[in-house]
Every structure is written in C-alpha cells, then in structure tokens.
Amino acid sequence: xNKSNKETNLIKKLLADQLDKKERKKLYYxxxxxxxxxxxxxxxxxxxxxxxxxxKIWDKIEKQCIKVHKRIVPLELWYIAASVALVLxxxxxxxxxxEGSTPMDKYIEITAQKSRMYxxxxxxxxxxxPGSSIRFAEDFKKHRNVWLKGNSLFxxxxxxxxxxxxxxxxxxxxxxxxxxxxxxxxPSANEIxxxxxxxxxxxxxxxxxxxxxxxxxxxxxxxxxxxQLRQIENIEWQNGRYNFTQFNLEHLTRIxxxxxxxxxxxxxxxxxNCAFTGSIRYDESLEDVIDKICxxxxxxxxxxxxxxxxxx
Length: 312
Known about the structure:
Layout: H1 3-15, H2 21-28, H3 31-37, E1 57-58, H4 78-98, E2 107-111, E3 116-119, E4 125-128, E5 133-137, E6 144-149, E7 152-155, E8 164-168, E9 171-175, E10 179-183, E11 190-196, E12 199-203, E13 208-212, E14 216-221, E15 226-231, E16 236-238, E17 241-248, H5 249-260, E18 264-266, E19 275-281, H6 286-297, E20 300-304, E21 307-311
Parallel strand pairs: 6-8, 18-21
Antiparallel strand pairs: 1-2, 2-5, 3-4, 4-7, 5-6, 7-10, 8-9, 9-12, 10-11, 11-14, 12-13, 14-15, 16-17, 17-19, 20-21
C-alpha cells in the first residue's frame, strides 16, 4: 500500500473515531491532512468552556421603598381600628406570599454569539446555536427553570426531587434527567427531539400533556396549540456530537436534510446502502458535513438549483 493510500485510510479511521494514539500522532504530521481536511472540519476538543455567569445579569424588578405613615387614632376608636388593621395585615401578607407576577428573583441571561456549550449551575449542559439565548434565576438550584429563545440542545443533570423545566413560546418541557433538542426556526412548527431519557411536553393554553419517549420528535404550533408526534432514526448524542454507526447513505441523507433543512439527492448510480460510520458536530456546517461523507465513501458532490447531488 503506497503512502497516499495509507494516509487516506488514516483519515477515514479518524472520521469513524477508530484511531489509536500512535495513528493520531502519525496523522497529525501528515501533509495530506493539512491539504484535504482543513476546509472540512476543525477539531476543538480542548477548547475550555467559557464561564459567562455574571456577564449579563439583569434585574427585572427594582426594590421599592414603602413609606409607612403613622397617624394618631382616638382612644375610643382603638378597638375598631385594631380589628380593621388585623384584617388588612393578614390580607396583605396573603397577597404578598401569593403574588406570582412580580418575583424578586434576579436573573442571568446568556446569548450565544457563536456555537458554544454553557454549563448551568446544576451541571446541566446547554449546547447553544448562534443567536439563541437562555435566561434563568440566580438561585437556579432551588428552581431549575430555563427560558429559551432559539435553538439549543439540553443535557439535563439528574437531581432527585428537583424538576427541570424549559419554557418556550406558550409551552414548557419538564424533565428530570435526559438529553433533548429544541428548534424554533419556524414559529409555527417548533421541534422537540428526545435522544434519551423521558420528558413531558406541556401546552399552557390547553394544559395538554404529552409523554415523550427516546427517539421521538414532537412538532408544536404555538398559534393553535397543535401537536404532532413522530419517530426518528436511531441517533446517538455524546458530548456535542451526533454519532452514526454503520448508517446507510439513504437514511443518513434523510436525517441531514431534516437537521439542516437541505435537499440532498443521491444519484441513481450510487449504492444507497453503503454504510457511513462517523460523527457530526452540533455546530458543523452543511458543506463540511457533505465533504466528510463524500470523502469517507469515495463520492463526489455538485450543487444545482439549491439541490446537492451526490454521485460517483
């Protein structure tokens, strides 16, 4: 086997996460990896997780000073005034304790300028896509509630007795410990995909609850509270990557079209059952993904009228 073929096989083993330490070192010093792979993907294994807690703390409620005015009550009205005051105090305390619209909690808001992973105070992970934002209370461990705008994947850390909720438009997802993805690209078709564990989807307007199982996807329309539940392919999620093992090309392209909203077409001359083993990072571009697949399966691509054609 010549040098070029050996290096190419090393790259294919890298895509399938099958390289040992010696092979990784050998591939690192190869000129071929620099020429062919730099434009396809960049590995960021050792990038430290940035800690942005405190960067955008936002006080929703300002403390108000309540001035108490004293006044003198004639002695003969003391009993009546005392009775009225008691009623007012009890009523005021009840209203204060049950007031839900003016919480005194301070909140932290994180906005992702680029793809990143954010670690919540309870060790839950949020894999945020560019432009997405999360908001949660400073006292997060007491009430594990997160308000999400945009697209993010959650890996929820189990905490017995402490439920975890993610609020989206007119609905929320309740979990204990699981991994799920929320996409809100389409305002009339929010997508919730469950990879493992279990979650409960709650429609606020109708109080309708839907129990979701692993490898299910729920499509939700906030306008009319409509929901649709469907099965998805067997995809494994691990540490910021979607892992595929012996996935045939036809199933793989269907998943990628769903993930990226793309239109990939396989040429009739291509074996649609050829198997792909490898991973796709959560922040990887469609172009890099297609290049990776074509390189692994010795295929080529071309783009015609917004369609990506894969051919021999």
